[in-house]
Inverse folding.
């Protein structure tokens, strides 16, 4: 890259305030193209001088007025990649205090689907004016559709795999005969005269009825830091609830407990039932979920939380220990997120791990494998 191109890039990074200084490196000056001026204008709306100077269009650093919003969003889409747009959108919301502009239909229609923005919308959903409610739901629906597209088939395949390869049942059933294992284990009993195997023992799968034969409970922390996890968990809950071989419960908690199982037919409705941003009483929620368990040995329970317990810590540890001892397959997911390392209560996580309760963060792409291992009750490797 030659000097002129390098100086142009620094000019776009540093803004109009740097122009005179950068011109000292090149006597011909810095001549931005029409597209570069448009890019400079779009960036200056967010990254311009807060005291009043910004480049290109002469706007101020105080952010974007509503009338300019549609043009700004259009400029972003024409000038930057989707990944760049998400970064700029988030900076616009966080750095420039544009949360109120999220309530404008034009803003929501133009935004690229983004988990952190979706979590913010869910947190503020009760404040969204009537004119923007439909747009907000459509924005959340885009995020749900994207997660479904990426995970639904793999999650269903993992559940089917786990359910079809469980421990063998002592109850004979011709429809559930495991032919391969029966033949393999009885090869020693081959009769050459009859030219056939004479089995001493038959092996049968535990039959999978059309009704739910396993229970999965998702216990979801609604605290503000768990926004992305709540979105992924809710979508996963709806996918699992659509499978007749599973009985699925979805529960959300802050200082109160809300059973959202009846909303599992529509992931957007389920997400709108979540109240992000409250306190945390994990012990109360675990106590509620314990009442949903009918067959502990056939129940897998996920607590999706950062473990920052605002309630009874000792009571929580006691209840988790009781569930574990009863035969429930209990797993703590510290975060399900595309973005970075989770924050969590390390002390409580260590105590849970000491009780042989898996406790880890799970990236979204690992959810299907994790779920299959959990339903098979095998060690989980992430």
């Amino acid at each position: 890259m030659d000097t002129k191109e390098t100086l142009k890039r620094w000019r776009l990074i540093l803004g109009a305030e740097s122009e005179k200084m950068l011109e000292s490196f090149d006597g011909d000056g810095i001549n931005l193209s029409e597209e570069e001026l448009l890019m400079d204008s779009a960036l200056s709306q967010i990254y311009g001088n807060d005291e009043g100077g910004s480049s290109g269009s002469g706007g101020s650093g105080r952010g974007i007025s509503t009338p300019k919003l549609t043009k700004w969003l259009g400029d972003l889409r024409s000038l930057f990649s989707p990944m760049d747009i998400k970064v700029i959108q988030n900076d616009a919301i966080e750095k420039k205090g544009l949360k109120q502009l999220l309530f404008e239909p034009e803003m929501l229609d133009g935004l690229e689907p983004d988990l952190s923005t979706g979590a913010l919308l869910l947190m503020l959903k009760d404040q969204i004016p009537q004119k923007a409610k439909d747009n907000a739901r459509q924005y959340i629906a885009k995020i749900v559709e994207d997660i479904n597209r990426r995970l639904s088939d793999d999650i269903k395949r993992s559940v089917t795999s786990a359910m079809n390869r469980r421990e063998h049942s002592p109850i004979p059933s011709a429809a559930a005969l495991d032919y391969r294992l029966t033949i393999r284990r009885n090869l020693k009993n081959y009769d050459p005269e009859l030219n056939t195997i004479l089995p001493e023992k038959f092996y049968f799968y535990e039959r999978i009825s059309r009704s739910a034969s396993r229970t999965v409970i998702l216990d979801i922390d609604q605290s503000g830091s768990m926004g992305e996890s709540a979105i992924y968990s809710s979508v996963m809950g709806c996918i699992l609830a659509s499978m007749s071989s599973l009985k699925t419960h979805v529960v959300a908690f802050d200082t109160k407990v809300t059973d959202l199982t009846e909303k599992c037919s529509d992931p957007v409705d389920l997400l709108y039932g979540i109240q992000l941003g409250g306190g945390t009483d994990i012990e109360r929620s675990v106590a509620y979920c314990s009442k949903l368990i009918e067959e502990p040995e056939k129940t897998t329970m996920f607590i999706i939380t950062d473990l920052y317990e605002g309630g009874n810590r000792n009571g929580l540890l006691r209840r988790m220990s009781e569930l574990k001892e009863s035969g429930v397959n209990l797993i703590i997911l510290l975060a399900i997120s595309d973005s970075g390392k989770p924050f969590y209560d390390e002390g409580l996580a260590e105590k849970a791990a000491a009780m042989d309760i898996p406790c880890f963060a799970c990236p979204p792409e690992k959810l299907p494998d994790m779920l299959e291992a959990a339903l098979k009750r095998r060690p989980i490797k992430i």
In short: The first helix runs from residue 3 to 14. The chain has three domains: 3-133, 151-162+210-375, 168-205. Residues 50-67 have pLDDT under 50 and may be disordered.
